[in-house]
Design a protein that fits this description.
Elements: H1 3-10, H2 14-22, E1 29-30, E2 36-37, H3 40-54, H4 59-70, H5 76-110, H6 120-125
Antiparallel strand pairs: 1-2
């Protein structure tokens, strides 16, 4: 298969496939004239990587997961630990995003959004120090 075929079958853009090749995640064979020749196993790896990336795993973690997948002597505990760490990172990010959302919601509701120049959103963004930016929004 050429890169176009693999792109269509895997759902990954050719540019992403080339990137994965550049960083060593996939290593297609090359023909005498230098064209990539992908095998079914390459397509399988790309599907694996696509799914892992869709779940938010970093390239480094994808590399570790791929190594574990290919290691028949692996212990599932290793994979579970990686997944649990990633889940904890997602939970932390959700908490951060919820805090951002709550603060922004308060600021939006405090802003009249009319012809007057007074704007609590801009006042909050213009606070001077990092210490002032922690916690609740400043609504003046």
């Amino acid at each position: 298969m050429n890169i176009g075929d693999v792109s269509r079958r895997s759902g990954l853009p050719a540019k992403t496939i080339r990137y994965y090749e550049d960083i060593g995640l996939v290593c297609p064979q090359r023909s005498e004239n230098g064209y990539r020749r992908f095998r079914e196993q390459d397509l399988h790896k790309l599907a694996f990587l696509g799914r892992a990336r869709a779940l938010g795993f970093s390239i480094g973690t994808c590399r570790a997961l791929m190594a574990l997948y290919e290691d028949e002597g692996r212990e599932s505990a290793q994979v579970k630990r990686i997944a649990e760490e990633h889940l904890a990172q997602i939970d932390e990010k959700i908490t951060q995003l919820q805090s951002m959302r709550d603060t922004l919601d308060q600021l939006v509701h405090a802003c009249a959004g009319d012809h007057r120049p007074d704007c609590p959103i801009l006042k909050d963004l213009a606070r001077n120090t990092a210490e002032e930016n922690i916690g609740e929004p400043v609504v003046r």
